[in-house]
Structures are given as structure tokens and as C-alpha cells.
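How it folds:
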Amino acid sequence: MSYLKNYLYILTLLLAFSSNNLFGQVESSSPIQKRDSVQQSIQLLQRLLYSPKEWKITDQEYRQGIKGLLHHATDLPLDTTVLKMEYYLNSPGYQSVFHRDVEDVKYRDNIYGYINDSIRLALLDTLRSNTIDSLFNEGIEIPDSLLLIVADSAKMIPSMSASELFNTNSAIVPKDFTDSLRIKFDSLNLRPELSVEQYDSIRTEFSDSLRIEYNKVQRNEYRDSLFTDYRQNYASKIADSVVEDRDFEILQRNKDLLYFYNDSVVNDTNRKAFSAIQTLQSFAKRDSIKVTFTNLDGSEVSLWTSNQDGKNNFIRFYLKNMQNDSLGVLVFNQGKGNANIFIDDPSVELTRIEQTDYKQAPKLQEKKINIRDEFVVPIVKKVILSPWDLGGKVSIGFTQTSLSNWSAGGESSLSGLFMGNYHFNYKKPTETWENTIDIKYGINKNKDTGIRKNTDNLEINSKYGFSAFKKWYYSGELSFQTQMAPGYNYGLSDTDPTSKFMAPGRLRFSLGMDYKPDGNLSVMFSPLAVQATFVLSEEVNPTDYGLVAGTNQKWDPGFSAKVNYKHIFSEDMSFETKGSIFSKYNGVFKSINFNWEGKLNLQLNQYIQATILFNARYNSDTKFAIYSEDESGNNVKIGEENRFEFKEMLTLGFSYTFY
């Protein structure tokens, strides 16, 4: 007995000693004081280490040691980092986490086919020059309007007498013409014996011929100048247009090359980075702690605990007590800082005294127990996060009014509104898939009219998108909307329905770009959209919803836009709104389908909620009949018109959110 007690006592001391080594010693100083001193030390060493212009350290190995201490004090513990990285490395979607915008691409001259600005400008200058030369070589046709301008605008001398042409002070005749005329006339050296009539005739004929010749020169010079300016302006405009088109092609080609090059480099960089992370992760997992056990006789044995996969090192040694008795012990590595301890001696037995019956004389019996107890360190399980987000909310609200002898008038009524929505969304770093189901159904009961519905809507939406650039996604959306129960125009008939399930029903498919700066806003533009309208009930008039009489469906291509926004004011108040617009290509902005909904939620406690609901819509295909009373007092349909529809509801009732 004493032999076994001594062994158990020594084993207890060993477990306590090992636990301290494996899991750390208890701090005796104040945690606040320690944090303060550690923070002060970090600030001091960072200032000394990272201010090379002021402080320097000559021993680089010592510098590396200080940096290691700083990393240990400021960064996450290595084991925590290893555990987190293990999750990321084993989760899909984290192989591509590094992103680079096209605007940040450097060394663009190394991209095959990319044209830099200097070469681009030189090419455009050469293209401009060649275009102008080609136009001049081929000849530029002069329009008839310029010929008229030449005839009307050239500075020519009108027909006049010789004396007026020889007048040097004339305001009409240019001085250079008069001077030239005098010099040329004097050079004729006319004979003195000529009569006055002969002299005047020669003088008039000579001056008039010079005037005509002068006018011809002036007209030709003006024409050449005008035509040259026209050709130059014409060639310059054509060259500008050609250069502009070519510049656009070069820039667009450069842009396409940059996107293609950047995508390939980003993908290659992410592959290399992921491989580098895996290498460092394997290196970090090999980080180990040495645990040393010392016996009473002073002998030591050590074990390295490590997180390295597949490494299950163990040691075997014998415990010694004061009498030098031995007990075999096995210690197994179970990860960094974790170990399992076993008693490795199946022959050891414990003998305990057991009393069989307290009424009889004491009878001692031996009970043999094999020692197989073991010390097991709990292993932390990794939590794998799902990319799916599932959840929904249902609410039921009531409004009841009871009147008796109420002087202001009115009647008792009871109304109820059920609202339910459910979403199942899939999200990864580069792709999203959002699915929602939204149901609203409300009824109203008055004393005289009975139960009537006042709200009825079933809407299903599914949108898939994958990352394009920054906060934009290439997206496709499929949406479906109808009502669940028949609807009536109660002012005219309680038996002829104006709507039923899938009468009308609308299905819309859209392709476009989705802008999502955060999780609360989504703006989708769809230049390619198709809307189908169905009226699958013979009791409902298809012409009321834009269909041709005798048909039950139509398909309209067009474009659409859709906005979803949510703002959370506090834990108890939030506002949600969504709007959509669809316009057919056949009659753009004349055929419009618009729908907007806003909802203000006020959570009064865990299960009670007040909701204010606004709904406005307009559909150019939905017609409202116009009635007028005839002489007999009967309502007679006299036409149809489109109307803007609006509804507001306030409810207070029960709500429940589930995930």
C-alpha cells in the first residue's frame, strides 16, 4: 500500500510540474501594470529601432533579436496565426486574395503590343501629316459657294473713265494701280501730232485694258488664297477626325492589353503567393517547445512538442521515489504545448479494502484495478465557416376598431397583415448568389362588407454575380411576381375577379452590371432584359394587362434598373427600400413598368414589432376602366386609362426572426 501511495504522490507532482511547463506559470504581478510596462517598452524600442537617422545599432544579429521580440509582443501569437491560416488554406475562395487595379500597373513598356504615350503621339503626328498630304495629292474639290464668294468679294476696280483711273487721289482706285498705269502709259511715247480725240481714245483704251488685267490678277490671287485656306482647313478637319479615331483605337487596345495582362499577372501572383503562404505555414507549424522532465535522482529526459503533421514523438522514462522504486511512464507529443501522459506498467495493481455488509462481521476482500487512467489535453476543433447565409422573418399584425354610438360616424373593422421573407445567399470573395422569397397577404373585415383582401403579393428573386472590377459585378437576375388569391373590383362586382394566381404573373430576366459598395446597397443596370406577362385564367380579361385579346402571354425585350438599400438606425429601428423600372425597347419611355416599396421597422421588444409599409407603382400595360352612370343609374364603362397606384399600411403585431 505505501509503495503504491508513494508512486501516486510522485505522479501527481509530475503532472503539476508538467502542466506548469506546458501551459505557463501564473502571473504574480498586476495584468494592468504588465500591459503598461510592455506597451512602454514596445514604444521605446520601436522609436530606437526604426529611426535610423537618429539612432543606430551596429550589431545586426542583436537588431534581429530585438525585432523578433517586438513581433512577438505586437503580432498575434504564432499558434493563433497558424490556426487561422489553416482555416483559410483549407477553405475555397481564398486562393486569390491579392488584387491590383489596372491603374496601378507599372512597367507598361514591357507589355507586348502596348504603345506608350511618346510612341503614340509620334504615330498620331505621322498619321496626321500623311492624311493631309494624301488629301492634297488626291485633290480637294472646291464647292460652288466659294466660287460665288470669289466673284463677289475680290477687291477689283469697277469700270470708270480714264481720268478717274489716272487720279492719284481717288478713294476707289488703289494707288499702286494708278502709279503703274502712269508709268506704263508714259512709256508709250505717243506722238505729239495726235489729236485730242485720238489721244483720249488711246488713253481710255489703254487704262481700261490695264484695269481688266489688274482685276484678273486680283481675282486669281484672292481665289488662290481662299481655295488654299479652304483646302488646309478641310484637310486639317479630316486629319483631326482620322487621328481621333486612331487615338481611340490605340487607347482602347492599350486598355484591353492592360486588363488582360493584369488579370494574368494577378492570377500568377496569387498562385505564387498561395504557394509561399503554404511554405511559411509548414515552416511555422514546425515551431516547437522543449519540455524537460527531471527525476529525483537528477536524471533528465526531454520531449519536443510540435504541431507538425504526422509527427508523433514520444519518450519513455521511469519515475523514482525516495526508496528508488520505479514506475514506467509514457509521454506523447499531441501538438505544440500539448502532451498525453500514460502509466506504462500494466503489472501495477491497486488493492483496496471493501466492506461487503455492515451488519456482518467485517470481511476484507481484495479488488484489483488495472491502472489505465490517462491525462488527455483537450484538442481545439477548427470551426469551418459556411459561405451560405440563411435566414428569414415572419410577422403578423392586426388593427381592430370597435364603434358604438360614435357621433363622428364610422364603422367597426378588423384588419390583419402577414409578412414573411426568407433568404438563402451564397457569398465568396469573387462571386455571389442571392435568393429571396417575399410574401405579403392582408385582409380587412367591416361590419357590412365581410372579409376582403387589401394586400396580396408573392415575389421570388434570384441574382448571381461574379466580380468584374472594384465594387462592380457581372450579374444576371431572374425575378417572379404574382398574387395568391383572387381580387375583385368591389365597387362593381364581388363575383368577377380582376386578378388571380398567375393572372397576371410577371417573369423578368436581366443581364447587366451590379454596383455593390457594401452589404446594404445594390444598384443593378440591365441593358439586356426580357419581361414576360402571363394571364392564365379565363376569368381575367387579358387586355387589362396589355395582352391582345385571346392570348395568355407576351414577351417584351427592354432594359431595366433595380435598387435595393437598407439602413440600420439602431438595434430596434431599420429602413428597407427597393425599386425597379422596366421599359420596352419598342416605345422607349412610353411603355414603363415602375414599382417602389419602402418599409420602416420598429422593434418594440423581442417579439413585438411595428411596421410602416409604403408601396407605389405604375404600369403602362395595366388599364383601369372608367365608368359613368347612365340615365337608369347603372354604371357603364366609357373608357380605360393608366393610373399611378399608391398604398400605405401601419401594423403592430408579432414578429419572429429565424436563422
